[in-house]
């Protein structure tokens, strides 16, 4: 059960020692000093933690949060992801704690969408500023054709255990063609998730950051001021933050291994993924159906609009290249891999034009009996023997960071505020038992 944060809490026993420790929230309420947190990373994990720190911190407390990210909001792998959101594996099996993750993620998406909508309305009445005409979330569902008998049987079995909030409907070729004309359905069966959505990650993260800023600016009575700052700079080591913060939460994905205190100590594998951006040429009038879903197969197609979509993703294991920029040679090799997979299901992609490629370096967690689960927990023992519940990790989101980040960010924020790692399910902290 999640803790109730209507009042400050004292927690006895920190995340790794037997001696007594006291929650920073409780200390702050006694001394009336500002409570300060540093969040490293402004992607899915980092901004989810920030949002939930702001919402769970008692309103009477003075809270300051500093976000550090040299690439800015969504400048890393989070901003490059395809944005296909549903609570299932590629074979539509419900993922570990999929219901909680699905619900929490949709909540954050709605919050981000509302924040950008409100901002756009303000500009429409005469204020100067950016426009947000492009979508945050495209609600058209996702279609998964069955391509071989083994997959078909698994899809059929797994679809029986779908969530009522994200249904899976089996359909024949004709029904699939009504959604996407000329789509290949080799076994006359496809599986449609009408409630699944497609997020535009960069816009979503900008909206979530705006929502965090708005929440921090809400008027409070008394001492409970909330401050939020984004620092577009990198942190080269964790100990340079020593003494300045009540807690430091590391949410930098694959770059966690570049921090000297964590290098070689986390059971993470790196994987560079390339996504191809495609557009229909002006001389072709056969738009992608306005209400057509995105497509899952050996390569996924994330539809951005009637004339724009993304194809992904490649998997380059053990890469250390975190640059989002893709060379001409690298893009060419990615297209050679992705286009045949995409055209096998959606032959019309052959008429589309490649415009550019983007890349992200994913941090892939170890495989467990529950699947590939992110890594959460207190990491004082990896950073400083003198610290107590000060350093925390939220990493290894892998290929499903969009689904996991909302619910896990909520858990992480509550664990940090209370100095209580036991709030986090043991499945997410068991990585500490792996021999490193």
Automatic annotation (TrEMBL):
Source domain of life: Eukaryota
One CC-aspect GO term: cytoplasm
InterPro entries in alphabetical order: FAD-dep_OxRdtase, FAD/NAD-bd_sf
Residues of the FAD dependent oxidoreductase domain: 37-414
Record-linked Pfam families: DAO
Protein name stated in the entry: FAD dependent oxidoreductase domain-containing protein
Lineage: Eukaryota, Viridiplantae, Streptophyta, Embryophyta, Tracheophyta
């Amino acid at each position: 059960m999640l803790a109730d944060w209507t009042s400050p809490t004292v927690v006895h026993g920190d995340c790794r020692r037997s001696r007594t420790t006291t929650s920073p929230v409780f200390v702050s309420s006694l001394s009336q000093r500002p409570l300060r947190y540093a969040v490293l990373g402004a992607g899915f994990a980092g901004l989810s933690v920030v949002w939930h720190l702001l919402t769970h911190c008692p309103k009477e407390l003075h809270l300051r949060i500093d976000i550090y990210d040299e690439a800015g909001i969504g400048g890393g792998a989070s901003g490059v992801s395809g944005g296909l959101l549903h609570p299932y594996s590629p074979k539509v099996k419900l993922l570990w704690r999929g219901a909680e993750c699905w619900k929490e993620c949709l909540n954050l998406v709605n919050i981000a969408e509302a924040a950008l909508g409100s901002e756009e309305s303000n500009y429409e009445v005469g204020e100067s500023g950016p426009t947000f005409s492009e979508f945050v979330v495209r609600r058209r569902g996702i279609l998964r054709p069955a391509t071989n008998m083994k997959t078909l049987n698994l899809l059929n079995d797994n679809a029986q255990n779908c969530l009522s909030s994200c249904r899976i409907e089996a359909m024949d070729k004709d029904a699939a063609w009504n959604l996407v004309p000329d789509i290949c359905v080799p076994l006359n069966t496809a599986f449609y998730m009408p409630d699944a959505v497609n997020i535009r990650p960069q816009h979503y993260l900008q909206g979530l950051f705006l929502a965090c800023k708005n929440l921090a600016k809400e008027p409070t009575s008394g001492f409970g001021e909330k401050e939020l700052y984004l620092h577009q700079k990198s942190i080269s080591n964790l100990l340079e933050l020593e003494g300045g913060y009540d807690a430091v939460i590391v949410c930098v994905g694959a770059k966690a291994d570049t921090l000297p205190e964590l290098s070689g100590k986390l059971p993470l594998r790196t994987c560079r993924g390339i996504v191809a951006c495609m557009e229909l040429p002006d001389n072709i009038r056969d738009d992608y159906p306005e209400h057509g879903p995105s497509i899952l197969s050996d390569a996924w197609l994330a539809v951005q609009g009637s004339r724009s979509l993304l194809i992904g993703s490649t998997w380059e294991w053990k890469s250390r290249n975190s640059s989002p920029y893709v060379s001409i040679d690298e893009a060419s090799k990615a297209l050679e891999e992705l286009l045949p997979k995409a055209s096998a299901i959606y032959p019309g992609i052959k008429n589309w034009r490649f415009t550019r490629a983007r890349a992200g370096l994913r941090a892939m967690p170890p495989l467990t009996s529950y699947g590939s689960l992110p890594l959460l927990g207190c990491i004082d023992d990896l950073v400083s023997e003198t610290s107590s519940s000060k350093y925390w990790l939220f990493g290894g989101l892998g290929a499903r960071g969009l689904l996991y980040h909302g619910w896990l960010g909520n858990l992480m924020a509550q664990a940090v505020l209370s100095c209580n790692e036991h709030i986090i399910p043991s499945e997410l902290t068991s990585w500490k038992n792996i021999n490193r």
